[in-house]
Amino acid sequence: MKNRKSVFARIIAAMLAIVMIFSFAACKNNDESKLPDAEKITLPEKKVAILVAPEAQYPEDYRAAQELAAKYPDNIVVKEYPDSRILVAGNPQIMTLSEELAADPSIGTIIYARATQFTLNAIAFAKAKNPNIKTICIEPEESIDNIAQAADLVLCADWSAAAKDIVANAKEQGAKHFVVFSLNRHISENNMLANANAAIEAACKEQGISYVYDNGVDPNWAAKIKGAQDYIKEAVARLELNNKIEGSDVALFSTDSSVQSTLVEIAKQKGMIYVAPSFPTAYNGAGEVYEAAKPAEIKDVDAYIKALKEAVKADTESKARISVYNFPLAATLLEGAVYCAFDILNGTTNSENLAENVISRLNQAADEKKFTAAAYNVGLNNAFAAYCPGFEVIK
User: Fold this and answer.
1) Reduced to 3 states, what is the DSSP secondary structure of residue 230?
2) Contacts of 202 (CB under 8 A, 6+ apart)
3) Average pLDDT in the 44-66 region?
4) Among 58, 349, 352, 386, who pairs with 343 as Cys (CB 3.0-4.6 Å)?
5) Are 255 and 276 part of one and the same domain?
6) E strands along the chain, which residues?
């Protein structure tokens, strides 16, 4: 009798477990069905291609592209081109890959995860092959005005907001001088970067910090990346010698991604401040110098910062004051771009509702209350800027 009761109890427990599993699944399905229509993802018939630079150049963009391709394996393809800062003979691969992708009838949109050099030419190659191909550019390194005329959609960082955040963080770290290294190609050919520089200068004035500008060596010149990095070392010594900067309370910043590791090394030697990389991300700059394991998901910036802090702490000889940006802006912009690409291919986003839908998709990708997205400026109807405040002191 005891055994029968035991068996009966086990049967009842198993049945209850099954009921609970189905109830949980039903609840989950109900939750998903309650998503607002604007947040639902409808997969298009045509695929989206993402063009990315190598992980060593832009790790957040690269990993975000791979993760999105894994999430939507039938709808996204990823193609990698060589480091855009290293010029070689012949057409850059970003151009030839664009042409190949545009010729593929299964591809409906090309997203340039970072619109590096030659993206304008790449779009021209793609459009020549297929006039109906859609293109989305993120954080253009060429003229944003020209890129916006060539592309269907442009997404970038809100540098007016980022500049204030960067300089305020430098102030908190004790900065009395803020040095900006840039290039003629950046400042004179891309008003987005010129405006970023102007915003930094204005923020320095507001914070009572001495602003110093120095025009660096373009890594595209004959001296290449090493020449650009060597120039930064010489320039800091020259600024000290000429009394443009004094002591160690100096924040170092550059719009050139190829010199970020150099700025960190100088900060380590001189006790200066490395406040932010050329684009708001946790993964460039300090991440290029210190070996810290990247998280399983690139958006998990908190896990990465924890690992980075341990790596920096282990460097007992470093005198640097180091900060990193603690929001995955590059990954968010790319995810938002993918959602927008799906909508454009499905015909649910067009010129009439572009602003409303793009901003909605960016906010969906961000999932953060402090995140903001808005039109870049009045003159560019298809360009949008986004940002989320936040820097964290590593040391």
Assistant:
1) helix
2) 163
3) 97
4) 349
5) yes
6) 47-52, 76-80, 107-112, 134-138, 153-157, 177-182, 210-215, 250-254, 273-274, 321-325, 372-377, 380-387, 391-393
* 297/363 Cα distance (integer angstroms): 19
pLDDT at 8: 45
The pLDDT tens digits of the residues spanning 159-206 come to 999 999 999 999 999 999 999 999 988 998 899 999 999 999 999 999
Asked if residue 179 lies in contact with residue 245, where contact means CB atoms within 8 angstroms, the answer is yes
Report how far apart, in Å, the C-alpha atoms of 393 and of each of 88, 129, 171, 312 are: 38, 48, 12, 11
Quick one: pLDDT band at residue 16, thresholds 50, 70, 90? very low
* SS3 call for 252: strand
What tokens were used for 323? 């900060």
Q: Is residue 7 part of a domain?
A: no
Q: What is the pLDDT of residue 320?
A: 96
Backbone φ and ψ of 115, nearest 5°? -75, 80
Closest of 112, 93, 103, 111 to residue 131, by C-alpha = 103
CA distance 146 to 138: 13
Number of folded domains in the chain? 2
End-to-end CA distance of the chain: 69
Identify the residue whose tokens are 């180091």. 322
3-state helix, strand, coil in the chain (%, to 5): 50, 15, 35
Quickly count: other Cβ atoms within 10 Å of residue 255's Cβ.
23
Cβ pair 152, 145 in contact under 8 A: no
The strand pairing partners of 134, in sequence order, are: 109
Examine the fold and report which residue of 304, 327, 350 is the final residue of a domain before the chain moves on: 327
- Structural domain harbouring 222: 159-327
Q: In sequence order, what are the residues at sequence separation of 6 or more whose Cβ sits closer than 8 angstroms to the Cβ of residue 311?
A: 290, 291, 292
For residue 221, give the CATH number of its domain: 3.40.50.11390
- CA-based torsion, 174, 177, 178, 179: positive or negative: negative
Asked whether 247 and 176 are in contact (CB, 8 A), the reply is: yes
Q: Are strands 321-325 and 391-393 parallel, antiparallel or unpaired?
A: antiparallel
pLDDT tens readout for residues 248-294: 999 999 999 999 999 999 999 999 999 999 999 999 999 999 989 99
